[in-house]
């Protein structure tokens, strides 16, 4: 076969295998790299503000007084002023390459960013195709520890517009600002996903966890468990102790699926985060 034909076939294969393409997910590229406060959306992102101005560039090496004092990934994060419950600063990006109906995992890191003082409460809302579908926990502008938010969603269309906006639940007594970094987007291909689970409701806490994960069941059962990473690789398994406490100190920080089995049959599963 001639080389050009092989090349053509390879290009076609690459095109077929192209996945969803979120651009500049860590906000490291921003239009003006020499100015501390840039009221524009990061490169590849579009303004989604309906209050305030636009997202600000949080560039720690360039502006060492910025809060938080470091990005969760790279050198740059985005900062948003939270307005009313319905108004605030935000940004969005139309992302192509989805398979409609398939599940995807969206993650991002967030923290308080009280550059202008105050400890007001706020949260991020998450929108898909302009529809609000999820929110982070309510957190303080003064809480500068990075936390991770996880959203599993079914792609409604082949191109999905993904948007974030900061809001306060208690305007006008609360406002503040929040930082975001390290957006992740990938197909949700956890082992067991789609399995017809004989469900028993159980809660896991704390979430994110650090050194242990506590399960809470409505009834006492003799069960085994398996923890897999987001690629479905088992990382921890065994009998579930009577205390229903699992030592997670050995897991690297990240997103995991906990599956619980009764006599070998999958009976429940839950997603949790392991933090530093
Ligand atoms: Ca970053």
CATH class assignment of the largest domain: Mainly Beta
Beta-strand proportion: 35-45%
Provide the structure class.
mainly beta
Low-confidence stretches: 1-18, 191-199
The end-to-end distance, rounded to whole angstroms, is 53 Å
The CATH architecture classification of the largest domain is Sandwich
How do the SSEs run, as a string of H and E? Answer: HEEEEEEEEEEEEEEEEEE
**What is the overall pLDDT average?**
80
CATH topology of the largest domain: Jelly Rolls
Largest sheet: number of strands, sense, barrel closure = 6 strands, antiparallel
Description:
The chain is mainly β and 276 residues long. The protein folds into two domains: 17-187, Galactose-binding domain-like (Jelly Rolls), CATH 2.60.120.260; 203-274, Sandwich (Immunoglobulin-like), CATH 2.60.40. It has one helix at 3-17; strands spanning 46-47, 56-59, 76-81, 90-95, 103-112, 121-128, 131-135, 139-140, 147-154, 160-167, 177-187, 203-205, 212-216, 224-229, 234-239, 245-247, 254-262, 265-274. A hairpin with a 4-residue loop joins strand 14 (224-229) and strand 15 (234-239). The radius of gyration is 21 Å and the shape is globular. Bound molecules: calcium ion.
């Amino acid at each position: 076969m001639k080389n050009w034909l092989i090349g053509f076939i390879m290009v076609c294969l690459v095109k077929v295998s192209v996945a969803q393409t979120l651009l500049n997910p860590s906000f490291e590229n921003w239009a003006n790299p020499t100015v501390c406060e840039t009221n524009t959306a990061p490169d590849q992102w579009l303004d989604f503000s309906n209050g305030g101005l636009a997202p600000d560039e949080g560039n720690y090496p360039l502006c060492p007084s910025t809060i938080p004092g470091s990005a969760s990934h790279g050198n740059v994060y985005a900062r948003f002023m939270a307005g009313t419950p319905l108004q605030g600063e935000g940004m969005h990006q139309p992302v192509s390459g989805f398979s409609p109906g398939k599940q995807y995992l969206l993650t991002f890191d967030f923290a308080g960013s009280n550059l202008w003082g105050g400890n007001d409460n706020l949260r991020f809302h998450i929108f898909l195709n302009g529809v609000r579908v999820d929110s982070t926990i309510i957190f303080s502008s003064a809480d500068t520890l990075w936390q991770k938010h996880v959203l599993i969603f079914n792609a409604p269309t082949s191109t999905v517009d993904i948007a974030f906006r900061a809001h306060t639940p208690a305007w006008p007594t609360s406002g503040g600002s929040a930082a975001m970094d390290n957006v992740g987007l990938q197909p949700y291909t956890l082992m067991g996903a789609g399995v017809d689970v004989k469900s028993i409701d159980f809660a896991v806490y704390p979430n994110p966890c650090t050194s242990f994960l506590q399960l809470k069941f409505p009834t006492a059962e003799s069960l085994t468990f398996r923890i897999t990473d987001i690629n479905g690789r088992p990382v921890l398994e065994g009998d579930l102790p009577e205390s229903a406490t699992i030592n997670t100190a050995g897991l690297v920080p990240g997103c995991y699926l906990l599956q619980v089995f009764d006599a070998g049959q999958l009976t429940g599963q839950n997603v949790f985060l392991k933090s530093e």
